[in-house]
Write a structure and sequence with these properties.
single chain; alpha+beta; eight-stranded antiparallel β-sheet; two-stranded antiparallel sheet; 6 helices; 12 strands; globular
Amino acid sequence: MRWVEQVMGFPVSLRVDDEDVPETSADAVFAWLNEVDVRFSPFKPDSEVSRLDRGELAAKDLSADLTEVLDLCERYRVATGGAFDVRLPGRGLDPCAVVKGWSVQRAAELLTAAGARRFCLNAGGDVVASGGPWRVGVRHPEQADKLCVVLRLTDEAVATSARYERGDHIIDGRTGRPATGLLSLTVVAPTLTEADSVATAAFAMGAEGIEWACGQKGCEVFAVDAERRVFRTPGLPVAA
């Protein structure tokens, strides 16, 4: 089974190789991701995030899902010394950096619960791979038609934070200025919640984020800094 749908502003593709998994499982995946977009988008005035940002909701009124997301955001804010912050001065509350990986990981868990064992869920280049092995390419940070590494994933997730799609959009919360110390940083982790959050948080830290990301439990890292130097952890699952 193969599907592609535009959700949350980026393409989400799903491939399921199991023959006995019902097509309704894919419907459930995209229904969940569209629900997340409605509930958590800071760009939708009626979303739970927007209502919280305007002061219309108290902490006791929040859904368990949003509470979990905000707890994750606070965890990474503290861990990075404030470099990663979803409440930047002069900007509204924007937890998208955590919501994306968290929600796609939840979608993958829906597939597993439906009996899927071998599948690949790709959300704008961030991937959850089950079964396998799967070969996943990481785009070169400066040459769109080239890869800088190919990974071999089995029951893992990978996420990349970079400047090539949206420019200098990741802000270092400590300075209020764009983080420019890295060109790209890729994290392989057991879940996309971890991979995506660690990649974004580390990128916000700049060059020092490489060492920080490498120290996160269960994470393997591939990074290119602004000097075009390449770093990778020994356990990075590079394809032969």
